[in-house]
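Page 42, continued from yesterday. The earlier attempt failed because a stray header line got pasted into the input along with the sequence. Redoing it now with the clean sequence only.
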Amino acid sequence: MERIILKKLIEWKERKTRKPLLLRGARQVGKTWILRYFGEKYFSKVHYLNFEKDKSLDSLFSNSLDPEAILNNYEIVYNTNVDENDLIIFDEVQESPNALTSLKYFAEIKPRQPVCAAGSNIGIVSSTAGFPVGKVEDIVMYPMNFFEFLQAVQPELAKFIKEKKDVLPIPEILHKKLIDLFLHFYVTGGLPEAVSEFADKKDNMKIAFEKTRIVHERLIFNYVSDFAKHAGAVNAAHIHSVFDHVPHYLSTAVDNSIQRFRFKDIIPGKSRYADLEGPIDWLINSGLLYRINIVENSGIPLVSYRKHNIFKLALFDSGLLHTMLNIPFSKIIQQDYGTFKGYIAENFVAGSLVANRFSPLFSWQGRQSEIEFLIQHEENIIPVEVKSGSRTRAKSLSIYSEKYSPEIKVIVSLKNLEFNSDNTLNIPLYFIDNLRDCLNLIRLKT
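This time it went through. C-alpha cells are written below.
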C-alpha cells in the first residue's frame, strides 16, 4: 500500500542539500514500512538498524558520535560497505539517545549521506537525548486517509478522487458508491494493519470486519502496554484511565456535537484540570488524542482567544473509536446507532484537519450555538460545520455568519460536493482531505 507521504520522502531525496530526516508519529501508523519501501525502491542499498529489536546496536554510538566512526564500526561488525547511494534507517530511534543525537553530526559532518530515522512521538519527546534541533527535517506521519484506503480496496475510485480538480458535484452514482466505501473506512479506520486485513478479506465482508476488529483490539492492548513502558506504573494507570474514558466522553455528545471535556469521575479523587493535565498532555504528545481548543470569539490569531483548560478531545482513529465503543458493524454501515453519531463524524474531521496542517484545532461556541471547527486559510477564518448525514440545515452557521461575515463557509456532511451562491462549500466527508485544494480553487475563482 503506497502512502501519500512517499511524495515528501522522494522530494527530500532529490534535494541538493538536505538534513537527516526524522519521521515520527503515533505507534502503528506505518513509519517502518514506508521507510523500508522508500529505501528499497529509490536507493542502491538499505542499511536498517532497529534499536528496539537489537539493543546491541546502541554500542555503535557509545565511544563517538562522529558519523565516520559510527559507519566504520557498522561496516566492520556487519561486514558491509556504506556509500552515499545507500539509505541508512535508524528505526525506533528513541530507544538509543546517542543515535538520536548523532543525527546532528550527520547533518554537520556528513550531509550527503542519506539518513532517515523513525520513532514514536512520545518516545522521542520523553527521550533523554539532546534533540538535534534545527539539524533534522521533521515529518509527522498520520493514519491512512480515505484516499489511501481507496487505493488499497478500489484504486480506480482513488484515481478519480485524485484527479478531481473542481468543486462541481460528483456524478450521483459515484457519490453513492463513495459513501458506501467511506462507511467501510469508518469501520477499518486508518491504521495500515487494519486496512490491509480488510483489503485481503473484503470478498467476505463479515469476515473482513471481524478480522479488522481483532486487529484493533490487539493494537489497543499494545498502546496500553506502551503507557507503562514510557510513563511509569502510577502515571500509566492515570494515562490509561483518561484513554479509556475518551470514547465514552465522545459518545455523550449533545445535539450531535462533542462537548467540552470534563475532568470529574475519571481518576478517583481528582477533578481539576491540574490533576489530569499530565496524562492528557502525554496522550496528545503521543499522537493518540487531538486537542480542540474552544473559543468564544473569532479572529486572527485564534490562539489568543483560547483558554488552556477549556477544550474538547478527539481520538486519532475512527476505527479504534468504534471498536472501543463496541458498536456493531451493521450499525456503523447502516448509520443506525442513535442520534448521537454526529460525534463520530466530528472526530473523523478533527483527524483530517490535523493531518492536513489545519492545526492547532479550534471550535467556536456562542451562547446557544456552536461551530465544530474554525480554520485559518490564508488571511481568512473559515467556519466548518460537521453533519453526520445529508441534511445540512445549520442554524449555528447562520448565527456565526451573521456575527462575523466569513468570506467562505464550509459544511461537511454526506451531501454531494457543491459550492453555492451564498459562498457555502458543501463537501462530503469522504472528500474532506481535499478541503485545502477546494478552498484554493474557490479563492482563484473569486
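Notes: The first helix runs from residue 6 to 14.
Reminder to self: strip header lines before submitting.
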